[in-house]
Write a structure and sequence with these properties.
The chain is of the alpha+beta class. It folds into eight domains: 131 residues; 79 residues, Serine Threonine Protein Phosphatase 5, Tetratricopeptide repeat (Alpha Horseshoe), CATH 1.25.40; 54 residues; 80 residues, no CATH class; 65 residues, no CATH class; 105 residues, Serine Threonine Protein Phosphatase 5, Tetratricopeptide repeat; 76 residues, no CATH class; 105 residues, ACT domain (Alpha-Beta Plaits). The chain is built from 36 helices and ten strands. The strands form two sheets. Strands 1-2-3-4-5 form a five-stranded mixed β-barrel. Strands 6, 7, 8, 9 and 10 form a five-stranded antiparallel sheet that branches. The radius of gyration is 31 Å and the shape is globular. It comes from Nonomuraea dietziae.
């Protein structure tokens, strides 16, 4: 959807800023970028928050805007299908409200619903999409910003309905209508026309269409490069121009972040897999299996079936007979979820026939020695797909073979198959009650991965108390049901389940903010041979959160970290670290800090208003490094280790104030920073060398500086204002601290004038 349709948002942003809601206004303008740039953690936090705030202040257009961009972030690059249809339908209904329907963005709701339906099952929803889009398009003129987006979806629906010839004509007419009013077609419309031409078997024309669209302005500029590369590669592969197709195809590490590209990328690879440039490997099969599961969770039913069939064909090509057979089963099961399964039955049958006529690779070892050969295999170069086939004759009979076979199946993305084998061997035979703990672990993990919760619960009832409660604790942890997990883990500990139960209890306790309990559970096992350094560090983190300094010191001694003090809170200077904290927009923020203990750090830099932390705050962090230490000795000297924050332990009580203006001379700045340091007020400049302000009389661009200074709670705001005034009064250009001036009501007009005159 052309972002010009949101021009009215700029006025709303200005109104919000003038009303003192600058942060809200900035977040509002960032939503489209979050959706297009794939900043989904931020989008998933900010969009609902903005929608909720808009509702509370009775701004329905704004609520629509936030809800729309959140939905586009889901049905666009993330390609969510059935899981998003209800929300899309709700947005369409919201758009019909009396106080919303005049909003110029209302047609966007129809487009979003059509996209969600296409993601779920393009052909199956084709008629619904045409019926939805047709009236909306008729109500618009080509001059309307919504026109090109709706037409693009209409062309897509015609193609999915098997009316590709009409789709081509419709697209050509729409492009002409846009040109007649001085508007260019979007890249997306041109790309959709190329898809229709490809569906007609006119690959040469499809290539011409995608090339002609190259200069069209994209609605989603971030996605265009990889989407265009995938489409171009598929067309070239269809034409048999293999080398060009391979060159055009984006790498897997690019496409892997864009589910909307998964199916076409797989189609292109399937056509190119016989070439020397594209290697059809078990790693490719594993990736496709993960994509199949992704669409299963997102309700992308058509994509799930299509990928299963493609993955099956690729498996046949590399002699993966067992995998092709399972993928045929998966495609057949998925077909039942389609609204229109035309042609799927025939393709499944063809896949089964191809698998039946393919000979699997011959085993390289005698059957009776196969487990030993598996254990001796090169973990880097061995082919797990082949080993699944070679171990199959023993699996379900020989326990060692079963362990290796089923875990390899799970690794390749087939936990259901592995669980079935284990189930028959242990549960159906009644041996589950006396099964080895390792086998219970394997079966539990397979059932969790297969999302067979009821089956796992059924298995747990057949186990002795320790195994039963531990299996259920693992299930609850996997599903993030923390209270149930803690309860089951505690019962498992009481029944003698050992260190695994204590680990489960600690994990659940940490999530429930019951760190003292979790730390104690681990401390009680400190002398156990099963206790690892990782367990000790977890105990240290939890004990730190509970301020159980005795346990922290015991843990530090165990991992070889000397602590100078012998009692009370640990407050030492152990070097600089980077603490990674959550930002209000759902992203992350790195804050330079001083490590004060095994798992504590004091933030050293002032933070902007609106953050939940500031300089002086003491935080608990996870001591697991987020980046590896560089190998280069010189880089090691400058390396500041990054750690993830776990929680705030104690706030420092600092308040931040913003300053902005033209940069002073080096001497003036040195004096200024010295004044701040003498008072112990942390200060940090957030601007860089590119920041410029405007000279109020000459219009010359001057180097600028902006940042924050943090002051302790015992310092009054008027004292900060007076000191800043004193420290900067001799500067050639004045510094502004407008928010502080407003707070203390001192020289507000002067600061407003500086801000305006210098363009701050």
């Amino acid at each position: 959807m052309d972002v010009d349709i949101w021009a009215w948002v700029g006025e709303t942003q200005q109104q919000l800023s003038e009303a003192g809601n600058a942060g809200f206004a900035m977040a509002l303008g960032d939503l489209p970028a979050q959706a297009y740039e794939g900043r989904y953690p931020q989008l998933d936090v900010m969009a609902p928050a903005i929608a909720q705030q808009a509702e509370s202040v009775d701004l329905p257009w704004l609520e629509f805007y936030a809800r729309y961009w959140h939905l586009i972030g889901r049905v666009g690059d993330r390609a969510q299908g059935a899981v998003a249809i209800g929300d899309a339908e709700s947005l369409v209904a919201f758009a019909q409200r009396e106080d919303v329907r005049e909003c110029p963005s209302v047609p966007a709701a129809v487009e979003a619903l059509a996209i969600a339906q296409a993601n779920a099952d393009g052909p199956g929803y084709a008629a619904d999409r045409l019926a939805l889009l047709g009236p909306a398009i008729e109500a618009l003129e080509p001059t309307d910003a919504a026109y090109a987006g709706l037409v693009t979806q209409y062309v897509s629906a015609l193609t999915d309905a098997g009316r590709a010839d009409e789709a081509v004509s419709y697209a050509e007419t729409a492009i002409q209508r846009l040109g007649a009013v001085g508007r260019a077609a979007s890249w997306e419309l041109g790309a959709e026309s190329s898809r229709a031409l490809l569906a007609l078997g006119r690959a040469d024309d499809a290539l011409a269409a995608i090339q002609a669209a190259a200069d069209f302005k994209p609605d989603d500029p971030v996605a265009k490069p990889h989407r265009e590369g995938v489409r171009r590669s598929l067309i070239l592969a269809t034409l048999g121009r293999t080398a060009e197709a391979v060159d055009a195809l984006p790498d897997l590490d690019v496409v892997g972040d864009h589910p909307r590209d998964f199916v076409e990328w797989a189609q292109a690879v399937n056509k190119l897999a016989g070439s020397a440039q594209i290697t059809n490997t078990w790693q490719l099969g594993r990736v496709l299996r993960q994509w199949i599961d992704y669409f299963g969770m997102m309700g992308g039913y058509r994509a799930r079936v299509e990928l299963a069939l493609i993955a099956g064909e690729l498996a046949v090509a590399r002699q993966g007979v067992w995998q092709a057979e399972l993928l045929a089963d998966l495609a057949e099961q998925g077909a039942a979820e389609l609204r229109s399964a035309e042609g799927v039955t025939e393709r499944v049958a063809a896949l089964r026939a191809a698998a039946a006529s393919t000979t699997a690779p011959e085993a390289t070892s005698p059957l009776e020695e196969r487990v030993a050969y598996f254990d001796a295999a090169d973990g880097i170069n061995a082919n797990p797909e082949e080993w699944v086939g070679w171990l199959a004759p023993l699996s379900g009979k020989d326990i060692e073979a079963t362990r290796r076979h089923t875990t390899t199946l799970g690794f390749l993305g087939y936990p259901v198959t592995g669980a079935d084998i284990y189930w028959k061997m242990l549960v159906d035979t009644g041996q589950i009650a006396t099964a080895d703990a390792q086998d219970l672990d394997f079966l539990t993990n397979l059932l969790v991965e297969a999302r067979q919760d009821e089956r796992l619960e059924q298995m747990a009832e057949l186990l002795p108390a320790a195994g039963k409660h531990l299996a259920l604790a693992r299930l609850h942890i996997a599903r993030e049901r923390w209270e149930q997990a803690a309860s089951e883990a505690e019962q498992a500990m009481e029944a003698g389940a050992g260190i695994e139960a204590r680990r489960a209890f600690a994990s659940a306790s940490q999530q429930l903010d019951q760190d003292a309990k979790g730390a104690l559970a681990l401390r009680e096992a400190l002398d156990s041979d099963d206790m690892t350094d990782e367990d000790v560090w977890r105990m240290i983190v939890m004990a730190t959160s509970a301020e159980d300094w005795e346990t922290v010191r015991i843990g530090a001694k165990r991992v070889g970290m000397p602590i100078k003090s012998s009692e009370g809170p640990i407050e030492e200077e152990l070097g600089l670290v980077r603490i990674i904290l959550p930002a209000p927009d759902g992203g992350q923020r790195q804050v330079l800090s001083i490590r004060t203990g095994p798992a504590t750090a004091r933030l050293a830099l002032p933070q902007p208003r609106g953050m939940e932390y500031n300089a002086g705050d003491l935080v608990v962090f996870d001591p697991q490094l987020l980046e590896p230490v560089p190998d280069d000795p010189e880089e090691q000297q400058n390396f500041v280790p990054p750690f993830a924050a776990v929680r705030m332990l104690r706030p420092g009580g600092y308040t931040s104030y913003f300053f902005d203006g033209a940069a002073p001379s080096e001497a003036d700045w040195a004096e200024f920073t010295e004044v701040m340091a003498e008072r112990g007020w942390p200060m940090w400049v957030y601007s860089d060398e590119n920041y410029r302000v405007t000279h109020p009389t000459t219009g010359e661009q001057l180097p600028g500086v902006f940042g924050w200074v943090a002051v302790p709670s015992n310092v009054a705001a008027v004292e900060v204002d007076a000191l800043l005034d004193d420290a900067t009064e001799r500067w050639v250009h004045p510094l502004a601290w407008l928010d502080l001036a407003r707070e203390v009501d001192v020289e507000v007009e002067r600061h407003e004038r500086i801000t305006k005159e210098y363009g701050l």
